[in-house]
Design goal:
By secondary structure, the chain is of the alpha/beta class. The protein has one domain: Formyl transferase, N-terminal domain (Rossmann fold). It is 38% helix and 23% strand. The protein is built from 6 helices and 7 strands. A 7-stranded mixed β-sheet has the order 3-2-1-4-5-6-7, with helices on both faces. Helix 1 links the parallel strand 1 and strand 2. Helix 1 crosses helix 6. The longest helix has 24 residues. The chain is globular. The structure holds 5-O-phosphono-beta-D-ribofuranosylamine. The site of 5-O-phosphono-beta-D-ribofuranosylamine has 13 residues, from helix 1 and strand 5.
């Protein structure tokens, strides 16, 4: 069974879905660490209630991204972590982490990339008036949501769709697609 780390900045509903699938025996992995750059993130509470270690840091307390990423790398290596799962981590991954975990970092994004990269992908899709959007899981490179695509699933945008209804539909797909994709990747 592989040791993995989840990186999150916010609610952590994808983090929770992964925890649930591990606890249900559907995904074989050990979440050895939650890395979080926001001290008030709900993801931290979720980690605590499942006795998952946390590394919470304040990016502003460091002189550079390299400095805090080196500290993260040290934390990950101490715990023999082999794989990094980004789940709403609102920060570009820099070369320090990328070099140490080459081909071992994945992200989930709420659109069919390469459409609507970056922030508020759901809002971008609604504004563009597309009839289909979706979810993408991809490897992480130095760009913004540009890495090689691993899995995608489409979600229809209905006539009366609101931000709330579309967010709910996308989250349902995310929570299922992420653990299924991880199941494949972690068995390799
Ligand atoms: C998800 O929509 C994910 O695709 C994006 O950030 C959001 C995180 O949501 N990268 P949550 O914190 O997992 O609820």
């Amino acid at each position: 069974m592989k040791n993995i780390a989840v990186f999150a900045s916010g609610s952590g509903s994808n983090f929770q879905a992964i925890i649930n699938e591990i606890e249900r025996g559907e995904l074989s992995a050990h979440i050895a660490l939650l890395v979080c750059d926001k001290s008030e993130a709900k993801a931290i509470e979720r980690a605590k209630s499942h006795e998952i270690d946390t590394f919470v840091f304040n990016p502003n307390a460091y002189v550079s991204k390299e400095e805090f990423e080196q500290e993260i790398v040290d934390e990950l290596q101490t715990r023999n972590i082999e794989f990094i799962v980004l789940a709403g981590y609102m920060r570009l991954i820099g070369t320090t982490l990328l070099r140490s975990f080459e081909g071992k970092i994945v992200n989930i994004h709420p659109s069919l990339l390469p459409s609507f990269p970056g922030k508020d992908a759901i809002g971008q899709a609604l504004l563009a008036g597309v009839k289909v959007t979706g979810v993408t899981i991809h490897y992480v490179d130095e760009g913004m949501d540009t890495g090689q695509i691993i899995a995608q699933e489409a979600v229809s945008v209905d006539e009366d769709e609101t931000r709330e209804t579309l967010t709910t539909k996308i989250q349902q797909v995310e929570h299922r697609l992420y653990y299924k994709t991880l199941k494949d990747l972690l068995s390799k």
